[in-house]
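ESCALATION

Customer reports they have been waiting on this structure for their group meeting. Please prioritize. Original submission:
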Amino acid sequence: MKPAPEMPDQKPLVSIVTPSFNQAQFLEETIRSVLDQDYSNLEYWIIDGGSTDGSIKIIQRYASRLAGWVTEPDRGQTDAINKGFGRAQGDILAWLNSDDTYLPGAVSEAVNSLAQHPDVGLVYGDANLIDEQGQTLGSFPAAQTDYARLRRGYVHIPQQSAFFRASLWKQVGPLDPSFYFAMDYDLWVRLAKVSRLLYIPRRLANFRLHASGKSVISDDRCWPEMLRVHYREGGSWFSPLVFKARIRPWIYGRLPLRARLWFRKYFAQA
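Update from on-call: job pushed to the front of the queue and completed.
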């Protein structure tokens, strides 16, 4: 009697992209957090912008386990992510910045949630806020949101813990390269306009805050970009988002880091 043929892996392919530029201090931890996931059907792309700090040697050590990688000058993080997704073959997409990390089981949790909710286009979970040494500073204020709440500035989506369907990316993507900071917010709005978003009350990722990170040094660039999305979608001048955009930079820029974390939590916009 012939043995039954092995069934092909029926799990959806997940494509993860890491945009990277001179983040050797954190890059290996990021890479390992992806490759050590317990999900078998995964492809991982690293798109490097021409790093000169030792990042390439780190990437080369893991090259045999990657779907692919490139190192070349680009137009920044948004351009790198678009390049990666342009190469990706997955049914589910995500990007993980080169200073952030996944927690164990994150990919499996996201895939299972999307399988259980076929009407959902994007799932996301909780994320820790960590410092340069990986010590927990607090939590990202993740919560259920939707198109209407996103339009009011209630984002609540940690980009590090977000996974979305490639079919919707093909419908609403790519990321707008004119955005430096709010390209993820812009994408969440476009996805929410055509599909349901789902918050998973599980901790999936770590979001690192450090002296050279965009979230620390360039936070003031986020709100003008969010307002571009707001007005593009027909938003009014009399909106909670417009009010937040006016008052937050004035308060936030004067606060020490731990006070900023409290402000993020209670001002409902990370």
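Sent to customer with the following note: Strands lie at 14-20, 42-48, 68-71, 92-95, 101-102, 120-130, 136-139, 162-165, 196-208.
Escalation resolved.
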